[in-house]
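In this supplementary section we document a worked example of the pipeline. Step one takes a protein sequence of length 242 as its only input; no multiple sequence alignment statistics are reported here. Step two produces a three-dimensional model, which step three serialises into structure tokens for compact storage. The input and output of this example are shown verbatim.
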Amino acid sequence: MTLLLLAGSGDAKRIAWGLVDTGVEVVASLAGATRDPDPLPVPTRHGGFGGADGFRAYLNEAGITAVLDATHPFAADITARTAQICHADGIPYLYHLRPPWFAQAGDNWTAIDREEQAASHVTPGQTVFLGTGRQTLDRFRNLEGCRVICRQIDPPTAPFPFEGGEFLIGRPPFPVAQEKELFEALGVDWIVVKNAGGAASRTKLTAARELGIPVLMIRRPPPPKAQIVDTVADAIAWARSQ
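The serialised model returned by step three reads:
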């Protein structure tokens, strides 16, 4: 068997390490959203597949017999395409989806469905910190008139897409104390995040709670109709069972 591990999350890295020396032949795939990702301990391909036809051709050419999807919870297009093709072609498919975040006592969260809805909660002139990455940045264009700070791992290759915006470069992890210091220095009024889940990324939410900063939480897209697990251990067990 040859397992294709669709990576792109911290959990995917833990899954890859968990499959080392188990006898499972694994090929990982990274879409290339981060220019210098941390290396994985298994053979890794970089870049997209060229759409549905390209993905199906790769599965055939590489002799892939099972697919473990451990992409980011908001990589909805990739996940939907993968699940559909695997179902149609009879290839075993598993989606690893870590649990979402839930508000705790003291959190001030407002749930929204799309990035564009943030503007209805923010007052012009306020400072908005985006922890949503650069790929959906253009959807916040209606925040023009605010100071908008977008944190991303890689230095930008193009100017900010609208007036009043600026990039902040940083590579996680970000300790809570560091996040608090940053938010206070920037004078952040709102934080916008995607409900990606995971302990490592939650530090900004802890910092927001301790500083009393309100959070706009973007709901997850619906998952595919497929077998889903929410722990790394269950994902590894499924891969070994194939």
